[in-house]
Structure formats: structure tokens, C-alpha cells
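Protein in question quoted in full.
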Amino acid sequence: MAASAMDGVAATALRSVLQRVKQAAERSSRASDRIRVVAVSKTKPVSLLREVYDTGHRCFGENYVQEIVEKAPQLPEDIEWHFIGNLQSNKVKPLLTGVPNLAMVETVDDEKIANNLDRVIGNIGRKPLKVLVQVNTSGETSKFGVDPDGCLALVKHVTSNCPNLEFCGLMTIGMPDYTSTPENFKTLANCRTEVCNALEIPEEQCELSMGMSGDFELAIEMGSTNVRVGSTIFGAREYPKKQ
């Protein structure tokens, strides 16, 4: 990704993030091209997403169904959209029909949402959707996600009963102040080990989505294959609110 004198602030920030990802990968003897950076673009205007897209980046994440449904048609179809927010059942159909290039939902945290996704995908006839099972590794009541003890059962439900979903791995958010981040990340890694042993698949086939703007380097060093970086790339500028 060659630098350009015309690059804006967001494009320059993305380059810095990718360099930090590369360095964190090297510290843990991993290949940086095996680590996906999701540019979290919630509340950011389409113009900023386009700036980052124009650097060659293709993976973007949104937290709100209304926003991703509004933005996706305004941007190129080769974007790989990740939905990373809590998904309510009544928003499943608008999300899937409004974003044909939705690549992954990272926030499957109970059987009901898995069943709804599976049913709607079957009804609209789109290809199977990649999903991650969200695990609440910090034990906070304010956090979504299945308890670590229930992780395997939910994964088995997805793999056995949801033919239109492709289970790809596990996701967690962790403590907001990062004080317990290593323990949270270790818990997710332990969940992966349990899942892979039960499904008899190699751990390389089960992604770990953990790490955000404040802790993505530590997450990579602890095995993350997918990091969600927002404010570090896009800054504080926000999407105009509807009147």
C-alpha cells in the first residue's frame, strides 16, 4: 500500500495501524497477513470510509443496522462488511436484505439470533453467512455474549442446526478499562481450545476476534486473528444525525 501525498488523516492513520499490526505479529512470530483489521466506521461519514477504501482497505465494521443499511449502497460492492453490534431479531431481515455484501456477523450470542439469521438467509436465498459466537469473557452484566461455560453448546447449535451459517470462530470485547484484558483474552483462547477439541478441528480453523483501538496489539500477541479498530483510524468526527 504505497503512501500518497494526497492521503488524508484517516488514510495516514490506517497506515500507522497496519504497521503496528505488523510489528505485533512479528513479536509473536505470526504472519501479519493472517490478521484482519476491521475498520470500525460507526458514526463516521461515508466520505471518511471512502478515503480509507481508496488506500486499498476493504474490511469495515458497523454497530448499528440503520447505519450499515444506509452506508452500504453508497460505497463499492467489494467491501467486506462486518456487523459487530448487538443484533435484535427484528433487525435481521433488514440487515441481510439491505447489505448483500455482508461478510460476517461477529455477535451471535444465543440460539434465537442464530436461528433467525439461518431462517432469513434461507428465505432470501443468499449464500451462507460467516458468523462468530460472542463470548462474555469479563462477566459484566452490561456486556452481551454467551457465558464461557455455554460457549461450546452454542457453537454446536450453530454447526448442527443452522445450515445457512458458517461458524468461523469466537469474539469477545473484554473490560473497557483494559485492566483484565489479558485474562479476558486468555478465557477466549481457552474457549477456542474446548471448541476445537469437541469439533475435532485444528485451532487455525477457529478465528479469535478480540482487540480494539486500545488493546489490539496485545490481542494480536495473544492470538487474535481479527481486530476491530475505530477511533485510531477515523478520529472523533461523527456521522450527521438525522433531524
Q: What stands out?
A: Residues 22 and 32 are 5 Å apart (CA to CA). DSSP finds nine helices and eight strands in the chain. Confidence is low (pLDDT under 50) at residues 1-6, 239-243.
